[in-house]
Amino acid sequence: MREAGVLCHITSLPSGKLGPDAFTFIDLLAEAGITVWQVLPITPPDEHRSPYASTSAFAGWVKLCDPSFEEDPNHELIREWLSVNEHWAWDWGLYDVLKEAHDERPWFEWPEPLRERHPEAIDAAMQKYMPQIRGRIMNQVRFQRDWMILRHYAAQKGVKLFGDLPIFVAKDSVDVWVRPHLFRHDVVAGVPPDYFSEDGQRWGTMLYDWQAHRAEDWTWWRMRMARICGLFDLVRIDHFRGFESAWAIPEGDDTAKNGQWMEGPGDDVLQAIIDVAGDTLIVAEDLGIIPESVTDLRKRHNLPGMSVLHFAFDDENADNPHRPENITKDSVVYTGTHDNDTTMGWWESGSDKRKGRVMKIGLAGESPCDTLTRLAMESPAPIAIVPLQDILQMGSEARMNTPGQATGNWTWRFDWPELAGGNWNVFKR
After folding, report:
1. Nearest Cα to Cα of residue 403 among 237, 208, 206, 191
2. pTM, to two decimals
3. With contact defined as beta carbons under 8 Å apart, do 243 and 265 qualify?
4. Catalytically annotated residues
5. What is the Cα 113 distance to its own chain's centre?
6. Beta 3-7 vs 36-38: how paired, if at all?
7. What is the pLDDT of residues 239-251, one digit of tens each?
8. Which residue of 169, 206, 243, 258 lies most exposed, with the fewest beta carbons within 10 A?
9. Could you please report the per-residue DSSP string of 381-417?
10. DSSP secondary structure string, 129-149?
11. In the CATH scheme, what architecture does the domain 3-60+160-428 have?
């Protein structure tokens, strides 16, 4: 049986918080017969609010917590939480406190003893800031408590929570500060020129020293996967192809044009995280320039990929994997993603040829949003995900992110009255 899902980040709720709005939204999904709620990464974003360049691979973004839930966790809960998360929690607490103490400057601009983590400097900072560090720990326990309350409520309503794991982390992150040997420092991540950008995209996130990870038996990756699988029912790995190869851009370059593909570890790291994930479904984001070797890697491990209907109508290529007739059972189908324009924006900016191809398979009285949602629901894919903006028939003003653009993203929020104008019945066909 096909499952229907909605893509809507926590920050897009009217309050942008894990409080009453989140519970009301779950009620709405359940009433509409929608069983999957997909969100963006819930780790702390970078200075541009991007959740895909996080300052921590493990910490929760405490600004998502609702003030109404802020009574302190009890000591038993704190001890239980630390028994599982101590391997990253104290480092995060110190990093976050030191960021504040240094006017939010990145760790690589701190004084050398702290920047290079001289033991005596770290010990002195831990002693000096221990009350504040404990406060950061308390915030993380509070975040997980609030999240698990939400997850339990969603499960009661028959709604699964679908998380997103960015493959990379920001240079200004606790992970790079604490474990610099696990990362490359001469190149940064991105993608070559493509559909979204003629200059490519220079993300600036860190690439991995895969040999160092292999030498440690993928411990960091095992811990990371265990963390996210403890929070979600399904997990999407963003930029999955980075496990096979990643676009490595010279650190000093302003664009991605001069990058080159750097080989990844492939099966080794993937098997390690799959072993940890257990019953949690992993979805591989395999969009963009995808060679056959990446597809083979995904299929060897029985991971579903992604199909996006926005990519189905720009040409007459019969082999286009995003065309409705080519979507397979080993994929999750989307109308669009957080990186796409909304479907109405996509439609309004499209060529006459693209519009003609959509209209050819549209039904009388259907909007472009309804057509693509119907196609997603009729596809062989076991899960169909629709961004909330498409249900609400919203234009480009509601776009979540424009790849390659540093500012103006990640700010869209809906208002409750707007939901009444959405076509929720398409999920019940």
Report:
1. 191
2. 0.95
3. yes
4. 238, 285, 339
5. 34
6. parallel
7. 999 999 999 999 9
8. 258
9. -SEEEEEHHHHTT--GGG----TT--SS-S-----HH
10. THHHHHHHHHHHHHHHHHHHH
11. Alpha-Beta Barrel (3.20)
